[in-house]
Specification:
Layout: E1 6-10, H1 17-26, E2 30-35, E3 50-53, H2 63-66, E4 71-74, H3 86-96, E5 99-105, H4 106-109, H5 120-128, E6 133-139, H6 150-155, E7 158-160, E8 167-168, H7 173-185, E9 192-196, E10 202-203, H8 204-215, E11 220-222, H9 226-235, H10 240-253, H11 263-268, H12 275-281
Helix pairs in contact: 1-7, 8-12, 9-10
Bound molecules: NADP nicotinamide-adenine-dinucleotide phosphate (NAP).
Length: 287
């Protein structure tokens, strides 16, 4: 009998972590979640997952979680944490594990992100320098990003944000998780950087209309100047350089739609979920 695989998920209680944990349990792996001490979302970890407390800002605290792991699913919370400790974290992962799967970004795929920006491209470079079997998931934006519109949808029914015509290929978080799970437990994905996207090209404004159809409400969109949105994004915690990068990218997507791939279907054997499916599952969060 072969031993069960031991997989650690880092970034376990965000958008992608919970579906990844559930799907990993279904593979029969021993599943671990790294959870910060006072994580307000700790209840998103499904039953059956082994919880280890640790903090990426203090790499030593990861030691117990890493002891005996085969694979690590790494999501770095760039919004909340600098990458200062990333080299040390990766050195520890390299000592403990054979394989790492990273959630990276479409920004790396299209050359928008440079290694010196201390974001996904930087982490990809660090990982490529290790002896780990690595897989990078260069994902487009999450469907869950539309939750950022929820306060305005609830309050006024009109979303005021720039670049409603930005045409995106947003991915369902559970589909990204499903690709990650295959790369974590199956062979044949080492050294691969996959562009992961949703199945359809859809503008931001179209997303809001679909949410409206699901809610049975007539929702509107009003384009506002990028500077107005930038101020709100920074006030809500976005690092200014990330807000600038996102807004420049959205503007670019009003001229040329975002790239798309069929990686979800190719790797998981199931069609990628549509935005309408996501909106139906998430309807209560807009009510
Ligand atoms: N959203 C997008 O459209 C998009 C696009 C491309 C790539 N990505 C990448 O996708 C990845 C996953 O995103 P996500 O939305 O699921 O998660 P996220 O919001 O980036 O990360 C949240 C997770 O990280 C944990 N975390 C925060 N600080 C930590 C620390 N110091 N030590 C250990 N864990 C810590 C959080 O726990 P707490 O609750 O305790 O803070 C939570 O579990 C990220 O790396 C992101 O850069 C996202």
């Amino acid at each position: 009998m072969t031993a069960k695989k031991v997989v650690l998920v880092v970034g376990a209680t965000g958008n992608v972590g919970p579906p990844a944990l559930s799907q990993l349990l279904e593979t029969g792996a021993v599943v671990r979640a790294l959870v910060t001490e006072n994580d307000p979302n700790a209840d998103r970890v499904p039953a059956g997952v082994e919880v280890f407390h640790g903090d990426l800002a203090e790499p030593e605290t990861l030691r117990a979680a890493l002891d005996g792991v085969d694979s690590v699913f790494l999501m770095w919370p760039f919004f909340h944490l600098s990458v200062a400790t990333a080299p040390e974290v990766l050195a520890m992962i390299e000592r403990a594990a054979r394989r790492v799967v990273l959630v990276s970004s479409v920004g790396v795929h299209i050359g928008l992100e440079r290694p010196d920006n201390n974001c996904h491209a930087y982490l990809e470079e660090l990982i490529a320098r290790t002896g780990l079997e690595w897989t990078s998931l260069r994902t487009t934006g999450f469907m869950a990003n539309a939750l950022g519109f929820a306060p305005q949808i609830k309050a006024t029914g009109v979303v005021r944000f720039p670049f409603g015509a930005a045409a995106r290929t947003a991915v369902h978080e559970a589909d990204l998780a499903a690709v990650a799970v295959r790369a974590l437990v199956d062979d044949g994905h080492a050294g691969r950087a996959y562009l992961v996207s949703g199945p359809e090209v859809m503008t931001q404004e179209e997303q809001v209309h679909i949410i409206g159809e699901v809610l049975g409400r007539d929702l509107g969109w009003q384009d506002v100047r990028a500077e107005e949105a930038r101020a709100r994004m920074v006030a809500s915690g976005w690092p200014p350089s990330y807000a600038d990068g996102a807004l420049d990218y959205f503007e670019q997507l009003t001229k040329e739609p975002e790239v798309r791939s069929s990686v979800v279907e190719e790797i998981t054997g199931r069609p990628a979920r549509t935005f309408r499916t996501w909106a139906s599952e998430s309807a209560d969060r807009f009510r």
